[in-house]
Amino acid sequence: IANSGVYNxxxxxxxxxxxxxxxxxxxVIWLKKNGTDEPYSATNVSxxxxxPYVVAAxxxxxxxxxxxxxxxxxxxxxxxxxxxxxTANGNRPGIPSxxxxxxxxxx
Length: 107
What we know:
Largest sheet: 4 strands, antiparallel
Radius of gyration: 16 Å
Number of strands: 8
């Protein structure tokens, strides 16, 4: 973060269950600030075998000081869950794995 202020950190991530895991397959996504977990920022996302694509999308509104560093982290309980990107083909453009937008919304 270059300037102190209030920021909106928005993202979307295309989670993909590449096989197996049934109804208990989950990913968890959360925010870190300067290498430390932000309290109550984590969310569980079910990525079940019968619904193999899930888009997680939400935002965090944070107060930041100049020089603060924010990172998105994720983990999963199933080795076949990934945040996948796909190249363009003749029918559609490419699909990014993650879209991230950070905007300053106040000082």
